[in-house]
Design a protein that fits this description.
By secondary structure, the chain is of the alpha+beta class. The chain has helices at about 30-35, 40-55, 115-125, 160-165, 170-190, 240-255, 265-280, 370-380, 385-390, 390-405, 410-425, and strands at about 20, 65-70, 75-85, 95-105, 135-140, 150-155, 160, 195-200, 210, 295, 305, 325, 335. It folds into three domains: about 20-155, Phosphorylase Kinase, domain 1 (2-Layer Sandwich); about 160-190 and about 290-390, no CATH class; about 195-290 and about 395-425, no CATH class. The radius of gyration is 23 Å and the shape is globular. It holds the Pfam family APH.
């Protein structure tokens, strides 16, 4: 087991069936059980309780721990754990008025790499002032009480903006706009000469964090060194060269396993042509933008926590007035700046804030208040964001990057590529 533990080495205590705030939601949990082939929460919660008493709070009694089923995402099962601490000795019936809370994240798929999410959180907390959950403990193997990789994080205050934002006053929505703009600006302030995904170094001889390049290279860093070099220029490759190399690597991998395949290689060639056209027409230029920056890739309201009880004004550059944490950094990367600059129309317009694709036509603010929120967000995010956020060409470049980084695993990916190429050719006919 790796990472930090919350207490001294554990000793398993006898336990009763887990206390759960979700005993009535077994029917609701059936979707997770069926879709992801998971153990039902009704039995899994007892194993989670044993985990909590073994690894987190070995001095706690079973009755003092609550296991809570929380809404999960596409990639992780989410469990809330709360320890109720008595204000007096148990034998005199102390009142349980203090709590210790954390979140247990269990990957839904075997291919998940928990350690890499930990790497991102460590990087963000060390190199930006963006609030993220503290990692308490993690294990990337299955030799544990849960028989699964897991990550335990502190439970941050507040609620997800997915449900909270529509209920906020205009003043609080403005605070959200300002805070989110500062988060974006902080990500854009990170400058790396290399692109790739964050990983924990397996060797203890060098830096704890590294970047795994999007395209495997024979030019490995020297022992004890890292590709994660900040504030160094120029970058290893131009944005267009990076995209074309990622697409070429996909094509080579496809033909290696399916030598007679023609459909995907043809699509990849056409997408590579789009990258070349973006550079030729001046959208993907080197110049001052020849660096890579931190990009979240899923900065949606469901992953933004806000705490309306906060009363600070965010006058300091390193403080936020209402946003309490940014969650789910699983997909974060170092990438060209335009990748980090997707607009957030839900701030100023009625919008399905949980959809992942960018609209072809952004909605305009329909009121003075909505226009104020957009103005505050754009001003807080800064000039670099505004340069890359709102043009059709950079929207298509972001879609191109996602396909280059993710690959083609579903019919939706092929459909996305088809729509991208269709729109690009309508803009720049051959």
């Amino acid at each position: 087991m790796e990472g930090k533990v919350l207490s001294s080495p554990p000793s398993l205590q006898g336990s009763s069936p887990a206390r759960s705030s979700c005993d009535e939601s077994d029917v609701a949990s059936e979707s997770s059980t069926i879709v992801y082939d998971h153990e039902p929460f009704s039995t899994f919660k007892d194993r989670v309780l044993a985990f909590a008493l073994t690894c987190l709070w070995p001095d706690a009694a079973a009755d003092d721990v609550t296991v809570e089923r929380l809404p999960g995402g596409a990639y992780n099962r989410i469990i809330g754990l709360t320890r109720h601490v008595r204000d007096g000795p148990p034998d005199v019936g102390g009142t349980k008025d203090k709590e210790q809370q954390c979140i247990l994240r269990v990957p839904r798929f075997d291919a998940a790499q928990v350690e890499n999410e930990v790497a991102v959180l460590k990087f963000v907390s060390s190199n930006t002032w963006i609030p993220v959950p503290r990692v308490c403990m993690f294990d990337h193997g299955q030799d544990n009480v849960l028989y699964s990789p897991f990550c335990v994080q502190e439970r941050v205050a507040g609620a997800s903006l997915f449900a909270l934002f529509p209920t906020l006053s205009h003043a609080d929505k403005v605070r959200v706009a300002q805070d989110l703009g500062r988060v974006v600006q902080s990500m854009l302030a990170v400058r790396s000469r290399s692109a790739g995904r964050f990983v924990l170094c397996k060797s203890t001889a060098g830096p704890p964090l590294d970047l795994e390049p999007f395209v495997r290279s024979t030019d490995a860093p020297a022992p004890g060194s890292s590709r994660l070099v900040l504030n160094a220029a120029p970058a290893e490759a131009t944005p267009a060269a990076l995209l074309m190399s990622m697409l070429a690597a996909q094509k080579a991998a496809c033909l290696e396993t399916h030598p007679t395949e023609t459909v995907l290689p043809e699509i990849l060639d056409q997408l590579s042509g789009v990258a070349s056209d973006l550079e030729r027409t001046g959208w993907l230029v080197a110049g001052d933008d020849h660096y890579y920056t931190l990009a979240h890739l899923d900065l949606a309201p469901r992953n933004i926590m806000a705490d309306t009880s906060q009363t600070k004004t965010a006058a300091a550059a390193s403080s936020l007035s209402i946003v309490s944490a940014i969650l789910d950094w699983d997909s974060a990367v170092c990438a060209p700046p335009f990748v980090a600059c997707a607009p957030h129309p839900w701030i100023w317009a009625e919008w399905d804030s949980d959809r992942e694709d960018e609209p072809r036509v952004l909605p305009s603010p329909e009121s003075t208040e909505a226009a104020q929120r957009k103005e505050v967000f754009d001003g807080s995010a800064g000039a670099t964001f505004c340069r890359f956020a709102y043009s059709t060409e950079y929207r298509l470049a972001r879609q191109l990057f996602r396909l280059a980084a993710k690959g083609f695993g579903t019919n939706e990916d092929f459909k996305a590529a088809e729509l991208l190429l269709e729109e690009w050719h309508s803009l720049f006919p051959a």
